[in-house]
UniProtKB/TrEMBL annotation:
Signal peptide segment: 1-24
Gene3D superfamilies reported for this sequence: 3.30.465.10, 3.40.462.20, Uridine Diphospho-n-acetylenolpyruvylglucosamine Reductase, domain 2 (3.30.43.10)
Protein family (similarity comment): Belongs to the oxygen-dependent FAD-linked oxidoreductase family.
The UniProt record lists the keyword Glycoprotein: yes
GO MF terms held by the record: FAD binding; oxidoreductase activity
Cofactors (names): FAD
Keyword line: FAD, Flavoprotein, Glycoprotein, Membrane, Signal, Transmembrane, Transmembrane helix
Membrane-crossing residue ranges in chain numbering: 609-627
Pfam entry (one): FAD_binding_4
Lineage: Eukaryota, Viridiplantae, Streptophyta, Embryophyta, Tracheophyta
InterPro entries: BBE, FAD-bd_PCMH, FAD-bd_PCMH-like_sf, FAD-bd_PCMH_sub1, FAD-bd_PCMH_sub2, Oxid_FAD_bind_N
Name of the featured protein: FAD-binding PCMH-type domain-containing protein
Length: 636
């Protein structure tokens, strides 16, 4: 072996040793001994608790994380995963988890069903512990009182199934995807097939069991109406942890009527859809007609068409539905032959694309429903889209490579009975349609292949094309269809309003910020697009609006005003609970001096980077020596 060869293989060995050391160190950092020993030492049964805690060294860590990653777009090796997963069976461990995460500088992410459109319940750019509700999914239905207590980890399918085992004449007005978790769903409002008759799911929440940042367990009475308002549509995970919801069940007939039919462009789809915009949001509240718009090839040909699938559900019999439709919407062409009278629980199957005869147990099978692989955006219309607008949208859909879908739900009915500020969910009177625009990455290994990127670009340009036809000022968006494209800026109100006012509108968003400031002043419960806990985290926001001692402070045009005294901020006027005083290092809410350190995330991250940095230094040094020696080696 030549000397130089020997030298390079020694160098290689050293390098690979260094890499493995660095890899092992980062592994042990991410195995998070500090957090795990905190969890264990704060438990009275270490054996029991150890079975509920997973770090990357446990073989079951990855499967547990993956099982509820409902959007396979985030199942990439590069997706950041939690440092620790905790799967509590009861509330004490949740409290311990909050305490230990705070103590050791981890953020927390809460996962119930795992359907978050941006994966925010199970991935983050900072070290975090994932609190997974999979073991907390009990459901207690009280038929006589028409209520149910549901733990956060239960799915909508499990809730429907459980209700249907007790009665055919009660249901809960929520969505049709059986694997969606009640934990996340209710926190964003939640729409479904009964929205025209009963409003959103959050409108039908009666009470909650909720853990705040200090580990206190609250109910509606002890949390107060402001916080109870906020968690029904304002994104509960910004405020704390939902342990369970108390739901009001609603009456449904023993049999409902469903129908499905397709209309293509050749069958007059454009004109029928145009009329649908006038009829569906204004018709009898018992009728809900969802539509899905596809662009596809006609049979074997190379010519494409638009197919619109109309899916109707009527709280009544075919005999009353048909005359109603003949009167209001004869063009749709619904006939007795395509109507089917089934139980409400079966309609959930039908709207999920299954035959009504499918055994309803499937609603509780979390692996029976295929995961999606999508990027989505939402819109609301407040005026009918004119025919020429529809034609533009169809043309755009036809340009897509069959990866796109529009899913459309008409509003109106009960939705208009609620004021925009009744709960944070603001898309109420005047909304005609809610439109979900989505592309999938099926057949693509990731969402970053050229084809995937083309699809995302297409989705964004569809968004632009639809601008004239959808709501504006703000252009409304559904917070449960969260979309980080809308922006994540949050250093001040102006930046946060870009996305916040689209999800919640101005008045609600400002109220959410005030409530957030009160209940989580250190902004422990954070994620991208958290109600400007942001504005609190960034003291500069308060400072920039400061105009000196004893004067009113406020963001432009906001009601977010403070008076500054030497060491305290006091809100102008009304709410005396809401003030803070500043010490050198932290904000402490007045009245509760149990301050805790701000999450030491950055320090922690720095710690993780140290091994890599060391490797680089040693590496650089070795390369330096090596090249120097090589130069000095006399040529034979
Ligand atoms: C296939 C599919 C179908 C859908 N259909 C509908 C529909 O018909 N109607 C509708 O309104 N929406 C629908 N959605 C959107 C859905 O409502 C949201 O994605 C919702 O947030 C999912 O809740 P989750 O518990 O399943 O998700 P997760 O990803 O677990 O959570 C979503 C968000 O809620 C937070 N969260 C979860 N659990 C808790 C808790 N216990 N306490 C506090 N915060 C918590 C998470 O941190 C995260 O921010 C659908 C989504 C998908 C993917
Ligand atoms: C601790 O938990 C284990 C496993 O769940 C159980 O077998 C054991 O009895 C528990 N011990 C005590 C003291 O409760
Ligand atoms: C995961 O590994 C840690 C450390 O070895 C152990 O304490 C814990 O009990 C393991 N968790 C499970 C669920 O086996
Ligand atoms: C609608 O069209 C799709 C695609 O051609 C087809 O699979 C489905 O069965 C049709 N539905 C009805 C009710 O005709
Ligand atoms: C589709 O094309 C194939 C081959 O070109 C042909 O055999 C078949 O009959 C066609 N089917 C229809 C429905 O036109
Ligand atoms: C759930 O669905 C999966 C996939 O269809 C199936 O393999 C499994 O047997 C089902 N489980 C139950 C308990 O029915
Ligand atoms: C994902 O995309 C596919 C196809 O485009 C569509 O059928 C499905 O409904 C979409 N799901 C969601 C939740 O966006």
């Amino acid at each position: 072996m030549k000397k130089s060869q020997l030298r390079s293989s020694v160098l290689l060995m050293v390098l690979s040793f260094l890499f493995s050391v660095s890899w092992a160190t980062s592994l042990s950092t991410s195995s998070s001994g500090d957090l795990i020993s905190c969890l264990q030492s704060n438990s009275n049964n270490v054996t029991a608790i150890s079975q509920l805690i997973f770090s990357p060294v446990n073989a079951s860590f990855l499967p547990i994380w993956q099982v509820a990653v409902q959007n396979t777009r985030f199942l990439k090796p590069s997706t950041p995963r939690p440092s620790v997963i905790v799967t509590p069976m009861e509330e004490t461990l949740i409290k311990t988890c909050v305490y230990c995460a705070k103590k050791h500088g981890y953020e927390i992410r809460i996962r119930s069903g795992g359907h978050d459109y941006e994966g925010l319940s199970y991935t983050a750019d900072v070290p975090f512990v994932m609190l997974d509700f999979t073991n907390m999914r009990s459901i207690d239905v009280d038929v006589a009182k028409r209520t149910a207590w549901v733990q956060a980890g239960a799915t909508l399918g499990e809730l429907y199934y459980k209700i249907s085992r007790e009665t055919d004449t009660l249901y809960f007005p929520a969505g049709v995807c059986p694997t969606v978790g009640v934990g996340g769903y209710m926190g964003g409002g939640g729409y479904g097939n009964l929205l025209r008759k009963y409003g959103t799911a959050a409108d039908n929440v009666l009470d909650a069991r909720f853990m705040d940042v200090d580990g206190n367990i609250l109910d509606r009475k002890s949390m107060g109406e402001d916080l109870f308002w906020a968690i029904r549509g304002g994104g509960s995970s910004s405020f704390g942890i939902v342990l369970a919801w108390k739901l009001s069940l609603v009456p449904v007939p023993k049999k409902v009527t469903v129908f499905i039919l397709n209309k293509t462009l050749e069958q007059g789809a454009t004109e029928i859809f145009h009329k649908y915009q006038y009829v569906a949001p204004n018709i009898d509240r018992n009728l809900h007609i969802r539509t899905q718009v596809f662009a596809e090839y006609i049979g074997n040909t190379t010519k494409k068409t638009i197919r619109i699938m109309f899916e109707g559900i009527y709280q009544g019999t075919t005999d009353t539905l048909l005359p109603l439709l003949y009167r209001k919407f004869p063009e749709l062409g619904v006939t007795r032959e395509i109507c089917e009278e089934i139980r409400m629980v079966q309609s959930t199957l039908v709207f999920w694309g299954l035959p009504s005869s499918t055994p309803t147990e499937i609603l509780t099978n979390r692996s029976a429903i295929a995961k999606l692989n999508n990027k989505s955006k939402s819109d609301y219309t407040r005026a009918p889209i004119p025919i020429r607008g529809l034609k533009k949208i169809w043309r755009k859909l036809i340009q897509n490579d069959e990866s796109a879908l529009l899913m459309i739900n008409p509003f109106g009915g009960r939705m208009a009975d609620f004021s925009e500020t009744a709960i944070p969910y603001p898309h109420r009177a005047g909304v005609l349609l809610q439109i979900l625009k989505t592309v999938n990455f099926n057949g693509q290994p990731s969402d970053t292949t050229p084809t995937s990127l083309r699809r995302i670009a297409w989705l964004r340009s569809l968004d632009a094309l639809m601008t004239p036809y959808v709501s504006n000022n703000p252009r409304e968006a559904y917070s449960n269809y969260n979309d980080l494209d809308l922006g994540v800026g949050s250093t001040n109100y102006q930046e946060a309003s870009v996305w916040g006012e689209r999800y919640w509108k101005r008045d609600n968003f400002k109220k959410l910020i005030r409530i957030k400031a009160k209940v989580d002043p250190h902004n422990f419960f954070r994620r991208p697009q958290t109600e400007a806990g942001t504005c609190l985290r960034n003291r500069n926001y308060l400072r920039t609006v400061s105009s000196g001692t004893g004067t009113a402070l406020g963001g432009s045009g906001s009601n977010f005003y403070f008076y500054e005294t030497d060491t305290r901020w006091i809100p102008a006027g009304s709410d005396s609970n809401f003030y803070f005083y500043e010490t050198d290092t932290r904000w402490i809410p007045a009245g509760s001096d149990t301050g805790y350190p701000e999450p030491a995330v950055n320090r922690n991250r720095a710690k993780e980077l140290i091994p890599d940095f060391l490797t680089l230094v040693v590496l650089g040094f070795l390369i330096f020596i090596f090249t120097k020696r090589k130069k000095n080696t006399p040529t034979p």
